[in-house]
Amino acid sequence: MWLHFGGGSSVFDGPQVGENRGGLDVGQNVLHPSGRRVVLPRMTKVILVTGGTGLVGSAIRQIVETQNEALPEEKWIFTNSKEADLNDVQATRDLFEKYKPTHVIHLAAMVGGLFHNMNNNLDFLRKNIHINDNILETSFQFNVKKVVSCLSTCIFPDKTSFPINETMIHNGPPHPSNFGYSYAKRLLDITNQAYHQKHGVIFTSVVPCNVFGPHDNFDLQNAHVVPALIHRFHIALEKGADKFVVLGSGKPLRQFIYSLDLAKLFVWVLRNYNDVEPIILSVDEKDEITIRQLAEMIAKSFNYQGILEFDTSAADGQIKKTASNVKLRKLLPNFKFTSLETAIADTVEWFKKNNKQARLVAP
User: Fold this and answer.
1) Of 81, 215, 315, 320, which is the most buried if we count CB atoms within 10 A?
2) Which residues pair with 280 in a beta bridge?
3) 215 and 58 in contact (C-beta within 8 Å)?
4) Helices (H), the chain
5) Model confidence over 151-194: pLDDT tens digits?
6) Is 273 a catalytic residue?
7) Per the residue annotation, which of 99, 181, 183, 304 is the catalytic one?
8) Under a CB-based contact definition with an 8 Å cutoff, are residues 19 and 28 in contact?
9) What is the 8-class DSSP label of residue 78?
């Protein structure tokens, strides 16, 4: 059942008494090994998801709500910046005092695409450092059992060998286009390790490749490549444009993960992954494609019949950042990712139906 609170948060409190999840009924009398009849505890985990209405938070909420992923002992709380400014330490403490979480999935961050990063490195650095420090220190003060934070493959060294893996995050400077965001996120990994060294707590992080899906940020000034292209193709079709210009050469290679796939993996990490070292959550290396191929795939989903051109005077960013998911595959070998073509088509369809309410600004 969903409970709605003021300030933009939502709570999913798991199955109700009498509902069945995993073979046992919540509130059911069961026989204890001692011979006594006992009532199953209603819930023991309070999971706070920061950035809960963004791309990944919305996907986790959908997985928990519609695919029966919430366990009887779990209470899921999805919050956003309308409820608490996580740059403010007192606002962060008030949020934790209100919900008293036992577990945290930390998604809140200042994020943006290539050009937004290039123009605002200082803001990306300072705001993300403040948010991350407030979340981790407040989690420690409130005895949170586990925090799972979100990093990104874009924080890896600019000059490196491929594929990149979890041991290589700090091996050299990041790409200069997003050094502010990258160093703030790297510091989050270092802070996790420092808390574990001093206090033994499980504060860990995941490293997704490029995420996209419903509820993404489609703002043309700040969006990542998939939502930006989707929004621009939508405009091109509305205008009947017979030519579409993709910024950059189209040659950079990227791996893309569907937000609903990433959401399932986040839930798995929360419940099963207890190593402080980060884990890369990425599609396989063979699924890497060029930006040209991505643009062609999105054009196909829109049934766009015009010509694609590439503006080579625009920045490309990193040419590649191929990530290895060997660690994930060893722990979860049978996970099946949604095909990129299907995920793109589903996201395009979502945008068509929801573009009036989606996060976007006029071009």
Assistant:
1) 215
2) 207
3) yes
4) 55-66, 89-99, 114-119, 121-141, 179-199, 225-239, 259-272, 291-302, 326-331, 340-354
5) 998 899 999 999 999 999 999 999 998 899 999 999 999 999 99
6) no
7) 181
8) no
9) E
